[in-house]
Amino acid sequence: MTEVIHRPVDHPPGPDALIEEARHRQRRRRTWIALVLSSVVAIGSLVFVLSGGSSQKPPSIGSHAFPPAPAVIAHWTPLNTATGGLPPGAQINSLVKFDGNVVAAGQYLSGAGPVAPGYPSAAGPVVWSSPDGTTWTKVWDAGGVVLGTGTGMTLVRAPGRLLLFNGGTAGSALWSSTDAVHWTRVGLPDAMAALAVGGAIWGHGLYVVLLSNKFIGGPVTAFGDSDTVWTSSDGTHWQLSALGPPAYLGSIVSTTTGFLIGGQVLGTSKAMTWSSNDATHWSASPLGDQRGQVTVATDMNTWVATVTTPIRNAPNPFGYTSTTTSFWWSRPGTKWTRALGPQPGRLSPSPRFVTEALPSGFMSIGAFDAMPVWFSTTGRSWARATNTGAPHTPILTIVPEENGFMAFTQTWGPTSNSPLEPRWWRVLLSA
């Protein structure tokens, strides 16, 4: 189904309108992103069971200048999925570690190709399980496509329980499981079911979920003029949390004392973060004078944010609006400081970045073609990695590892009627 965005325009689009238009375009590509916002959030602290430079002056930290980040190489190595139990047409966009296994959620679309044994011709959600991240077994599917093919999945792990959100243009649905094999549908409040899950996390005894409001600016006003935040202590009973002025919300992480959300203020597109100890009372903190969408990460000692701002009249070979990217860091609860990284005004070919904490530091990667990778050991200075062997297909999921990450992508089959074929990559970051 094609999503129609109702937004009156009575003058040539300015920077704010451009940012909003880029965000709407980003929502329509939700299947390719994933997690990538919500799916990565769900495994933020997971160490997977498988074992450039800038001429700008570095920012000051107290009375000391922080040195530039060292050069980094990202080595991309394809892993064999042909014999791993993931058939052509499998699409994974969320993973967690649960009860000693790696659990993945996504959908299966056979297209015009043959239907894989044990699968319906199309299904979503689908859940797979693996003891090692290489050999996969389908353990559950919904029996068909619940909300349409243009949706994403978000797994959230809590002690002894998994939640599985299915979200897209048609809204959201929720399932719950205690063993990753048997799943029970859970009803959602109407105001949650009508919107798409944009991110979800468990921490401090609470599930906290971001809902993306596709109706902003349109004739339907029943769901307000902002993305929303919902909380639950049991995954069944949900309460709306008041964030403040209307905003577009990009990502959420659990911190040592509560929660951190990245997003942008509606109307001004001002880059903003919100922090809270209880997911009820939120404090807003701007990222300088930046505008654009924000993704956040934390290693518990440092908060990191990436701001991606679309630039008008700046097309690129991949068909997306070019962007500028800036990195920011903060001690928990303190003012944000711009990190040493991309030169101001430097264009990036990727319209969306995903930022994640690794055991060895932080990484940020463009989720679309060209996949620029940035790395920092501290969050205060960043270096763009030199990619070797990287694919040119959108990333659906990334999974942190000790010295890098794993990435799940898809590539076209041998013919135009073939289903998309799953591809796993191990990415080693080295000096």
Give a brief rundown of this model.
The chain is mainly β and 431 residues long. The protein has a single domain, classed as 7 Propeller (Methylamine Dehydrogenase, Chain H), CATH 2.130.10. It contains four helices and 32 strands.
Strand elements, count: 32
CATH-defined superfamily:
YVTN repeat-like/Quinoprotein amine dehydrogenase
Largest sheet descriptor: 5 strands, mixed
Over the alpha carbons, how many angstroms does the gyration radius reach?
20 Å
Give me the secondary-structure category. mainly beta
Report the helical percentage: under 10%
Q: Output the strand order for the largest sheet.
A: 29-3-32-31-30
The CATH architecture category equals 7 Propeller
Mean pLDDT: 80
Strand and helix map with partners:
Blueprint lengths: L14 H14 L1 H4 L1 H8 L17 E2 L2 E2 L7 E7 L10 E9 L2 E9 L12 E9 L6 E5 L9 E8 L2 E8 L2 E7 L6 E3 L3 H4 L2 E8 L2 E7 L15 E5 L6 E3 L5 E8 L4 E7 L4 E7 L6 E9 L1 E6 L4 E13 L5 E10 L6 E2 L8 E2 L4 E6 L2 E6 L6 E4 L6 E2 L1 E3 L6 E7 L2 E8 L9 E10 L1
Parallel strand pairs: 3-29
Antiparallel strand pairs: 1-2, 3-32, 4-5, 5-6, 6-7, 8-9, 9-10, 10-11, 12-13, 13-14, 14-15, 16-17, 17-18, 18-19, 20-21, 21-22, 22-23, 22-24, 25-26, 26-27, 27-28, 30-31, 31-32
Please provide a written account of the structure:
The structure is a single chain. The chain is mainly β and 431 residues long. The chain has a single domain, classed as 7 Propeller (Methylamine Dehydrogenase, Chain H), CATH 2.130.10.10. 7% of the residues lie in helices and 47% in strands. The protein has four helices and 32 strands. The strands form eight sheets. Strands 29-3-32-31-30 form a five-stranded mixed sheet. Strands 20, 21, 22, 23 and 24 form a five-stranded antiparallel sheet that branches. A four-stranded antiparallel sheet has the order 4-5-6-7.
